[in-house]
Structures are given as C-alpha cells and as structure tokens.
Amino acid sequence: MVPLLLTGFAIVLLAAAVQAVTGFGFALVAVPLLALTNDPRTAVVAVGIAGMLMSIMVALTERRYARWRLALPLIGASAAGMPLGLLVLAQAPERVLLVLIGAAVVGCAVLIWRGLRIAGGWPVAVAVGVFAGSLSTSTGTNGPPLVAAFAGMEMAPREFRATLAAVFTGTGVLSLVGFALAGQLTGAAAQVGLVGVPAAVAGWWLGNLLFRRLPTGSFRRIVLAALVASGVLTAAPALAG
C-alpha cells in the first residue's frame, strides 16, 4: 500500500502544480493517472478529498468577489445531478468507468483547447450545473462545463475565479457526502485522498513558484496535449480488453 500512497502523493502534487500554473487541470490530471495506478472508483473519490482544501482556500480568500447569487443556485443544480453520477459510479463495471473517465478527460481537454463558451443565461447555466454534478460523482471532472458557462457570462477574472471556487467548494462537500452515503468512501480512497491533501498544498506552492518562470502559453498547450494522451491511455486498455 505504501508504494501506491507515494504514487498518489506524486500524482496529486503534479496535478496541483499544473492547476497553479495554468488555472485548470487538477482533476483532469489526477483522476486518469490515479485510475491507472489504483482503480477508477478510488481515483474519483480520492481526488474529491484531495481537491477540497484548494477550493476552500481560494473560496475563503476570494469570497468578497464571488457572485453568490449565481454560485448557490449552481450548487443546488449540481446536487440534482449527483445521484445519477453516483449510480454510474456504483453500478458501472470498472472497464466502463475507465472508458468514461478517459472520454471525459479528452472531451474536457478539447473543450478548454477550443475555448468553448456556453451562452444563454440562467436556464443554460442551471442545465450545465446538473451536468457538472453528474460528472462530479462519476468521473470527477466537473470543472470544464462550469468554466465554459462562466466564460459565456463574461465575468471579470477575479469574479470568475472566486465564483468557480465557491461552486467547487459546495459541490465538493456534497460529493463527499454522496460518496459516503453510497458506500464509495472506502478505506483505500480515504487513504489516497488524505495523503493527497498535503500534496495538493505543496503542488500549489510549487506551481506558483514556477508560474513566472514558465512560458504559460506553451506550457498550457503541452498540458492539454498530455491530457488528451492520458485520457486515451486510460480508456484504451478497457476498450482493447
């Protein structure tokens, strides 16, 4: 178990550093790599645990800038989609989960690459929230749909980050409650997730140090290409088997 925990620490460290440098990618990096080294259910739940601290820190420090009238309804909409995601996580065979995680990572990477903006106001935002909630508890990759919806609302950068962190904090807490109620909060997932908490803090600190030293645009393209590759590698063995 110790080698798996050390591997989990290294993966979360890398994912948090990528998030700090590029502004995205924590779950997209961590979930497929943890799914390959552990199993998909452990990966989804562990990333939910490890990512909570970063979301809470940003949400607290930036709370004055969050658009709470948007964040709270989106958290509620996400909660409505979580039971479907939990059903998929609990009932889908492991091979199917690996394919879903791989497809979600590739799809989300392409969405970010293309800079997709989802416009349409509140009804569309709520629908995106439901979809993001189902992703949160099935593949752990709920961020990009919310990012696309927020981009369509043309928020100021600080409002954007603060509101997104507020939504992630709320949906993260609800996801963990859902995992526990559905019996998915296993000992292995808890161990990897808790080991990932200090890794996330260290990775965020390291990423911030690298931020001014790396050509962010080039690094972003490399990360997106790597995400597509990791998604394909995650799904390929399950498809081939």
From TrEMBL:
Keyword Membrane set for record? yes
Q: Where in the cell is it found?
A: Cell membrane
Where does this protein have coiled-coil stretches? none
Report the principal subcellular site.
membrane
User: Membrane among the record's keywords?
Assistant: yes
Recorded protein name is Probable membrane transporter protein
Source domain of life is Bacteria
Q: What InterPro entries is this protein classified in?
A: TM_pro_TauE-like, TSUP
Keywords of the record: Cell membrane, Membrane, Transmembrane, Transmembrane helix, Transport
Q: Which GO terms describe its cellular component?
A: plasma membrane
Species name: Natronosporangium hydrolyticum
What kind of membrane protein is this, topologically?
A: Multi-pass membrane protein
Q: Where are the transmembrane segments?
A: 44-61, 70-90, 96-113, 162-182, 188-210, 222-240
Q: Which family does it belong to?
A: Belongs to the 4-toluene sulfonate uptake permease (TSUP) (TC 2.A.102) family.
